[in-house]
User: What shape does this take?
Amino acid sequence: MAGMTLCSVCERQVRGKAKVEGGASTSTADGATTTAAAASEACALCFGTLNPQFVARVAADVGRAVKNDFYDVKDFVLSLNMPVSLILREEIVKMRDDLGFAGTLASVPFRIRAIDAYIGALYEATGLRPTKCSNLNLTITFSNDEFLKPDCDFLQDHFPDEFIMPAKKMRLAEPPPIESLLTKVKVLSIASRLQADVAKKFNFETPTNNCVSSFELSRDPIFLAGRYCKFSRNLPQSPWTADDHAGSGIVGGSVSEQVCQFLKQKSLADVTRFTASGREDIDVRMLGEGRPFAVQLVNPRKKLPEWSTIEQEINRTFNDIRVSFLRQVTRAEADILKIGEEEKRKTYTALCYSSKRVDPAMLAALQDKAPLELKQKTPVRVLKRRPLIERPRNIFQMHAIPIDDHHFQLRLTTQAGTYVKEFVHGDFGRTRPSLADLIDPESEVDILELDVEMVDLEWPPGNITAQQPVPNGLAK
Amino acid sequence: MVECAISSHRSSLDRNFTRFSPQDATDEDASFLAHPSGVIVVILSTRHPALAKTINQVDFNVNKKKHRGVDRSQQTVIGKGKKGGLQLLPVTRLCLIKCADGSEYPLRAGVKGTLIEVNDRLLTEPTLMQTSRENKGFIALIMPKGNETKDMVNESDSL
Assistant: This one.
């Protein structure tokens, strides 16, 4: 039986013998021998990852990275990724009783021994307390591909059915090598089928290279929820897309970019993601309590100060944007924004023009025409990037107030996804019925200004003062 | 705020579309409303003789006699790419305008591109083409291949 080289740490913990200087062998009753490694880094079980000098080096690297960054946390959670070959060996060792491992930690999973080895050194190097529950995650990955081929060959001999390359991959110009199938998951699934006789045939080669270590520091994302108002008729909600607009007016960023940029600077996050419950056109104002939105801060370094302080600062910084009800939410709560889009209701005010003189009686009669169903073909202005379909949409309430002979204000509550501008001017007769059809088919009706008054959603979640859905759909 | 919006009223059409006509247009040429996103609305030209007459029928099936050709009002397009839309050349005929006095005017596409939609309301209310030329009486929607209006007269400038 070939001897297994162990480092001094594994020698002590697993084999159960005291550390032996350079090259001496010890033997057990069975005749299997283990040799204390001359250079204590080489180890067939831990690949040198438990060697105190190696540990110190890795910890120093992590320490440097932490000091150069700005995380305002005091603790962290440690995760370790070990090389696949090492995991395989652990599984094989479990099935063998001939190795004479009598150390106190012989039956302790390698993962635990490894974490134990690193915890102390990491605390020393970083000043952060290792815990089971923290916002900051440190993931250290060790890789060693030296035995990928021999391990793969060994397993393929005994479990050939696990190493069939999927047909899809074989058709590629350069099909990936068989070794790419040897993953941690694959090893663990084979392990359940591993028998003692097969395990005995495994040869524990000693690695000649050290493991390559890399690590990643990442803080749990922060999700913020709030409502925003947009007071400018020349400000897009999301970044400008050139083919949507007539190119008039100077635009300096969008609502989403400005809010995200502000929060990113405050929290020193890597990336920010903005989602909102629908959006309004560049020339449409968002009034009332505002449109629900959520921002995800990815890998933030700093916890944000109190929400009302941030709100005030945002509102002071930006003239045309107002943020309210800002608070932190969970990922699950942030996902609510996108659910059930179809059922939501929005309320608008539109300033309308009629080419023929407005009849106040016809305007008053509008109120009784609701609720009604429209059929809207995809508007011409978005037809370039959307398929041509006809959508049914509901108008739940309407109320018109005359302003002068040719102008009136229309307040209406519609189903989400209704193109309000097209309802007013008819979009070449492709939205029916249009406002003109309802008031005076002989007249041409046009929309001059549009404001969104209410987006009907309880948001932020659990906040009872912000926009409860009203049973009959009409806002106060 | 309301006052200044009203006094400087430009219609949605003026604000969002540019009017184009081909150079040296004939009776077979249509005019166009171009949206900045690319989509073109085909409309009757202001100088078209049919405007002064009564339009009895708009026929989208333009090649009946030769038993070929497609009834443009029967096409369906699928997806963002408008698959299934008739591929148009400038000389391709969109429709035949038949007037009360017996005269007939074929109308050409005038641009290269894909036919997205024709105004099927003209089948039942053909006079819309005269009474609401730039609105309910539009003729068709086209997705042009490239910058098809670059050689045309920009009528919006002269307003």
Remarks:
- Chain A has 14 helices and 17 strands.
- The first strand of chain A starts at residue 4 and ends at 6.
- The first helix of chain A runs from residue 8 to 15.
- Residues 21-34, 245-251, 468-476 of chain A have pLDDT under 50 and may be disordered.
